[in-house]
Amino acid sequence: MGVVTVALVEIGPLSLQMLQHLALMNLLAPLAALLFAGRFRPGAPHMIWKAGLLQILLLWAWHAPAVQQATAGSAIFQLALLILLAVSAVAFWRAVIAVGASSGWRSLAALMLTGKFACLLGVLLISAPRDLYGLPGLALALCTTGPSTLADQQLAGLLMITACPLSYLVAGVILAAQMLARLDLGQGPEMSASEMSALEVDSLEVDADVAARSR
């Protein structure tokens, strides 16, 4: 217990905030989406792209130095931003589950794209030559963090590029396994109404051609 306490006390504001984000967006949000998965209808294919874009925009906006400096001293603003991130993350994982039920490859692509942009942010935090934020601390913190430093910023980036893709990888493996299982059961991708109509027309034309030749 003492080791955990020391680790929390020595952690900086940026890495502490990153732990909050990871717990919220990559652990609690997918668990919440799974908890209510039975209530989701198969989603429209475009909904997952909107949900993914919203999540990435909010994540990058949160980590803009100006936003960090403006909200670091206000617990209310930080809580409001955390709620926005939580809502966007639940919406994204809900879309992954709902769209994946009928179009798994779209969910896989969305996971890959959003994961890449999240990792890119982590790489920027690691490779920056100086502390981009200069935060004195966090108003909404679980412990005394002290000011941000370059090492703190690099730890935050390292946490993002290691922990964040892990949940995406697990979800991707599950989706891929479900797609392979459907193929083994002979359930290919569902065709749209226009594709079914075109197939029926082609079939009728082939039947008519065969009948004409048999005469």
Summarize the entry for a quick read.
The protein has helices spanning 2-10, 13-35, 47-62, 65-71, 75-100, 104-127, 150-184, 193-214. The protein has 215 residues and is an all-alpha fold. The chain starts with a helix and ends with a helix.
Helix content: over 70%
Mean pLDDT over the residues: 78
Number of strands: 0
Structural class: mainly alpha
Give the helices and strands as they follow along the chain. Answer: HHHHHHHH
* Rg estimate, integer Å: 23 Å
Which strand-content bin applies to the residues? under 5%
Give the low-pLDDT segments: 1-9, 187-196
Kindly report how far apart the N and C termini lie: 89 Å
Main β sheet profile: none
The 3D shape can be described as elongated
- Specify the number of helices: 8
How would you describe this structure to a colleague?
The chain is 75% helix and 0% strand. By secondary structure, it is mainly α. Residues 1-9 and 187-196 have low confidence and may be disordered.
Compile the SSE list and pairings.
Layout: H1 2-10, H2 13-35, H3 47-62, H4 65-71, H5 75-100, H6 104-127, H7 150-184, H8 193-214
Helix pairs in contact: 2-5, 2-7, 3-5, 3-6, 5-6, 6-7
What would the keywords be for this entry?
8 helices; single chain; mainly alpha; 215 residues; disordered N terminus; elongated
